[in-house]
Amino acid sequence: MMHTEQTLVAERRRKTILSVVLAIICVIYVLPVAAVVVNSFKLNTFVKTETFALPTEQSFAGFSNFITGMTFGNYPFLKSALYSVVITILSTGLILLFCSMAAWYIARVNSRACRAIYYLCVFSMVVPFQMVMFTLSKTADTLKLNTPWTIPIVYLGFGAGLAIFMFVGFVKSIPLEIEEAAAIDGCGPLRTFFSVVLPMLKPTLISVGILEIMWVWNDYLLPVLVLDLNEYRTIPIHIQYLKGSYGTVDLGATMALILLSIVPVIIFYLACQKHIIKGVAAGAVKG
Amino acid sequence: MAEVSLRHIRKVYPNTERGRRGGLFGRRRSEQGRASTQGRASTLKVTDEGVLAVPDFNLEIADREFVVLVGPSGCGKSTTLRMVAGLEEISGGELHIDGRLMNDVAPKDRDIAMVFQSYALYPHMTVRENLSFPLKLRKMPQEQIDTKVSEAAKTLGITEYLDRKPKALSGGQRQRVAIGRAIVREPKVLLMDEPLSNLDAKLRNQMRAEIIKLRQRIDSTFIYVTHDQTEAMTLGDRIVIMRDGEVQQVGTPQEVFDHPANIFVAGFIGVPQMNFFDAELVRTGAAYEVRVGGVVVAPSAEKQARLAAHDVPTQPITLGIRPEHVSLATGGARTLQGTVDVSEMMGSSVHLHLRSLGQDVIVIVQTMDVDGSHRGGYAIGETVEFTFGGDVIHLFATDATGGNLEF
Amino acid sequence: MSKKPAAGNSLRQSTRRWAWLFMGPVVAAFTIGFVWPFFQGIYLSFCTFRVTSDATFVGMGNYQSALADPSFQHSFWYTALTAVVSLVLINVLAFAVAYALTQSIKGSNLFRTVFFMPNLIGGIVLGYIWSMIFDGILSAYGTSILLETRYGFWGLIILMCWQQIGYMMIIYIAGLQAVPEDMLEAAKIDGASRWQTLFKVTIPNVMPSITICMFLSLTNGFKLFDQNLALTGGLPYIIQPDGSTINTTEMLALNIYNTFYNANTAARGTAQAKAVIFFILVAGLGLAQLAYTRKREVQQ
Description:
The structure holds three protein chains of three kinds.
Chain A: H1 4-39, H2 44-49, H3 64-71, H4 77-109, H5 112-125, H6 129-142, H7 151-173, H8 176-185, H9 189-200, H10 202-218, H11 221-226, H12 235-245, H13 251-271, H14 273-286
Helix pairs in contact in A: 1-13, 3-13, 4-5, 4-7, 4-10, 5-7, 7-10, 8-9, 10-14
Chain B: E1 4-14, H1 15-18, H2 26-38, E2 45-46, E3 50-61, E4 66-70, H3 77-85, E5 92-97, E6 100-101, E7 112-115, H4 127-137, H5 142-156, H6 171-183, E8 189-193, H7 201-217, E9 221-226, H8 229-235, E10 238-243, E11 246-251, H9 253-258, H10 263-268, E12 275-284, E13 287-292, E14 295-297, H11 301-309, E15 315-321, E16 327-329, E17 336-345, E18 349-356, E19 359-366, E20 383-387, E21 394-397
Parallel strand pairs in B: 4-9, 4-10, 7-8, 8-9
Antiparallel strand pairs in B: 1-3, 1-5, 2-3, 5-6, 10-11, 12-13, 12-15, 13-14, 15-21, 16-20, 17-18, 17-20, 18-19
Helix pairs in contact in B: 4-5, 4-6, 5-6
Chain C: H1 10-16, H2 19-44, E1 47-48, E2 56-57, H3 61-68, H4 70-101, H5 108-116, H6 123-138, H7 149-177, H8 181-189, H9 194-205, H10 207-223, H11 226-231, E3 237-239, E4 245-247, H12 252-261, H13 268-299
Antiparallel strand pairs in C: 1-2, 3-4
């Protein structure tokens, strides 16, 4: 108590040191991404030898890596980017719509069958993909779910578990009275769901949506096993296949493509950072 | 606009549904568990079919009447209301609204509106959207909706909040919006399920007065559920007192207060609660007298006549006297004695808790006499004498139902 | 109040008429995407097959060959080691960072944003970024991450830390913020030092978060695939006396994948048996977590 002033000074000094330490870690954290940026402008031969140096006059490649990258690896990069976008949007949309509907039905009707499906969903959350990957890819093949337009059905099926689990948790927290009021006001079950329940689910829709977007966008194994690879590729598949298609990889071009593929992710992250962190935390605590 | 008639209405919760195991709705079950531990353990009848929440409910409600269903939690009042609303299936009996059989009609087609305890406003809609929602669903033209909404808003004094979302409103304002949403449709029957229970005491009194004003202005029939006897007394044209699913008494507030049908009603209606004594009713020819703690009280002539008409014999009884009908006395043959346990100063009166004849007796003493002189304070442990007249006593049988012997 | 259970609620009945619409799509997709493949997978683990249509029942044979497979055994121990080492490092570092960030220091929002960012980058891309970096370092010494098991191991650990610390940090921050301020002040007034407060008050109060994060990082470690594939792909390999090879940095998921899709399609039954064993392992961890969270919810 006698040294209050000193303690406060010490406290302030401690916080400054902490800030500096964190700032240093921060810089280290950004370095890998910075390395990608730097190396995407370097000629291939310099990437391995001068990885951590800024481009010199000798090693600077300009935008040629990006141009090479577009046609690099037997498959146009833009096409795989497009398919990634299509698959992500369709899958997330399907999951949000149908899983919220099913979750509401499960929570409100709560019959024996509903509970069975619910527990099956919870169970599916702990099943690793390797368990079903072979049989799932064959089933998907048989049912012609091997195109970007149909693979969302596979995502809906394999991703239903977490989504339904999270939606049911939220629906249970909505007082039943609101839906009863809707019934008295003149809503049938359909309208009750779409005009009353669905708008109330908005925070969970955002959380689940973000989790699904992150999953589908980054997913490698499911599309590589399901899609017809001669026709369709996604960004992760494209990047993985760069290695296999050339004896020695053009590292400069690879880095250029990696940069192109993480820029949208980072923009998306900075734009809805708050929702993403909240959604991810919600998913973690639940799942 | 509409009579409501409930004939032999029954509600059974099948055993399989109720005793179901399953984690999904654990929350709901625990809620129930809490409700039943709150008060006296509920003694709902369990039959082979399941739990009888409401065994046989009969009531004819007149057009524009204001009926209050009142009783402790778990007495079936909300279930009954929800059956009228169509939110619970009716297990047996007939429900008519305006002469039409409604048992299997969907809630939206019954021409009713309901106000919920939790308000149940749509959180994603503004107040205006909340009010217009039921009208929109009925495909009413937009101009007409606007007129009706602004009328209802004016009636309830919520015009300035029309563009706010419910979460930006206080409890009282939300309650007004909930009522607004119910009246904007001009329903035949307006159902209210504990609408004031979530408000604080001051606001509750204020809203109670508003509901009284409101019913003068609109033509609906009201069915109102509450556990609060004050609300029941002040609002209802008629009160229906329920317990364990069964109707105990139906009557005007004055009737149930003056002539409670049994001990339960007597104890439930009136604050502070009625005092009860073990006593004996003695019949000599056509004349009756009540003996309690060595004191003899003669019931009023009117009561004597009624007892005689029912040919009530000499028997032990439970004697009931309301605290406001007990007065302190000094000396005299017809006084009982008690020692002061607690003395509660209420302002205009003092509630004295006495220990007398082995039980607690509450006496309300006016602190100021008509002539302006103050009555002194009462010390704890002090012995006082009290008395009561033969016209304010209530005589109940000592059996399980505790029926009023005059009935 | 006198609310009744949902049983007998007539809204339920009217909703039931729409079961086909509300449940139909999910049930159909769930059957295609999970239920059918799952049970077929269980069945096939008892069969020899090349394609799903011509399977012959062989009983427990696949499980025997799976458990006897030295590469599977190796990948199990390698996975367990990776999972445990990464669990410890990730959680200690994530907690430290979260603790530092909740000390109301300047720039904590920026730090949080940066630390979380790697989490959004997919495993394949992460693998390539780090393989470039490690090779950039190691090439100076004339070696590569693909040439030595220990490089591959620590490389993967660093990658996992970089990716997951931010994620766990978010959970720890939420946990730390939920510790009541007045409890910490009470400890201060009672004369507890900073370290005593941390170990005796703060940590016991964030135990739920710690448990969640431990489970999460453990299951993440066990299920790791993309990063493993992209960083080292299992290399380097050693040749066994019997001529078979063991990929020394190959984890369980990758081992299963390679058994399914390598040239020897006759081993698919074994691969499926491995997958079932893997499933039991991961599901066991997951269900333990679920049971734990449930128990905690009940206690609250």
